């Protein structure tokens, strides 16, 4: 989070931000960062374990059906990013499916790492409540430990409609694997003579 702008002269703004942070199920230490340390919050994240993805997908489809919405085969309730799980939906997800995530408030200067395949949502102050404007820099990367999840995500994207924003292979996992292996083989060949010595 590289910038959080707090407008001057707005009455009760801090109380509304505090209420949003509390309603977001943030822990006491996070609340103290805002109330006592006076740090600037920019975004509220909810991050879930990758192993719970199918349960969350099933839950979102169920809620959509209850509200009379369609669930087209070539769309995905997680990748569509059309849902925000508010407090009541998060509570229901936990009660009905046993799924509970982590609430993280990203303050100015904080970095949030999201593991590959972990469903997540961010509630940005400026976009939702017009409280604080913020700028965050996002960088996607593929670590060797999470190649499996990244490859799995790429496969999921293939089944989305051709007009879907996530249909294209943004991660380029096959290219990453190819170049990683190519570099490893190159290093082994360059050091082949020293490796064969007893």
Per-chain topology:
Elements: E1 3-5, H1 13-23, H2 28-35, E2 41-47, H3 53-66, H4 87-97, E3 102-107, E4 120-124, H5 125-128, E5 133-135, H6 147-158, H7 173-190, H8 192-195
Antiparallel strand pairs: 1-5, 2-3, 2-4
Q: How does this model look, in words?
A:
The protein is of the alpha+beta class. It has two domains: 1-138, Cupin (Jelly Rolls); 141-197. Helix content is 41%, strand content 12%. A three-stranded antiparallel β-sheet has the order 3-2-4. It has a two-stranded antiparallel ribbon with strand order 1-5. The longest helix is centred in the last third of the chain and has 18 residues, at 173-190. The chain is globular.
Number of strands: 5
Poorly predicted ranges (pLDDT <50, ≥5 residues)?
125-130
Structural class: alpha+beta
Q: CATH homologous superfamily name of the largest domain?
A: Cupin
Q: Choose one word for the global shape.
A: globular
What is the strand content? 5-15%
Comma- or semicolon-separated keywords:
cytoplasm, two-stranded antiparallel ribbon, 198 residues, histone H3K9me/H3K9me2 demethylase activity, Jelly Rolls, 8 helices, three-stranded antiparallel β-sheet, 5 strands, metal ion binding, alpha+beta, methyltransferase
